[in-house]
Amino acid sequence: MSCLYITEQGAKVSTENGKIIVDCKDGSKRSFPKETLESIMIFGNISMTLPVQKFCLEKGIKVIYLSTKGKYFGRLHSTAHFNAERLKKQVYLSDCDSSCLEFAKKIQSAKIHNQRIILKRYEKHSDKDIKEELYRISIYENEISKCNTVDEVLGYEGMAAREYFKALSKLIKEEFSFNGRSRQPPLDPFNSMISFCYTIVFYEIYAELESRDLSPYIGFIHKIKRNHPALASDMLEEWRALLVDSTILSLVQGNEIGADEFKYDEESGAVYLSDNAMKVCVKKLEDKMRKEINYLEYLDAPVSFRHAIWWQIKSLANCIDSGSFESYQPLKIK
Asked: What is the pTM of this model?
């Protein structure tokens, strides 16, 4: 099962002979067997016929609408099923400080661990010295277990993130060097790429949470704010370094994209992906999403990254049903 990303502006999505058809303005046509699709992501000015929409609603295929810059507009969503009891338990757990702290410690310590391992992997192929950053990240990772509040956990996570991106900026190819994490807007090509791919993974998580009858807006780590999908933000933490950062690092270090593949806004300083850069990032990320991994300790067989997300959200739903995060196991690489 896969996700279909449609980035060609002016394209039309229809259905014919059991296939999803994408007709592009240049006259080219692509077709995809319906049974192979799990989700569709539409970027920008792209139309979809009513028969395709009905099919996606009937089969539970997630359709997500974003701008060409990755801004989320909404998604096609069926209201055929809903587990109100699970939502009540989610709300109850979100008000339990000890449960939120337990979940925050698990998620953020795993995130920092994965950041540290990724840095060590790339350090092997670099002459740059990042020993000081790795040392500090290790200290912050160890401090997480001693925290008494979620805010303390987030404090150490933030300090680790600063050291992590400082180290990344040393390891990455010079033409993609950057000065720390920047967002809304991203101020360099590397930040532009990871922000774009974070958005894609974020809304895959968002849709999967809804399919499990969980509210993406009621979280346990990030504070609940109006119009902010706090739970989707919580769950993205597990995948930032492991899935997105490693994908973009591979793209850059493997010379699969150049720094000239970006658009620069002189007034705001923002840096955005060109149409081709978007296609390159989408393909690289989708290839990674299909890659099979053995990081889930509770499974005997390997699964793709996409299905690992599915399993982790299933595990989250089970924890919420039981009223405890004790059994939740974040992914950790070795």
From this structure: 0.87
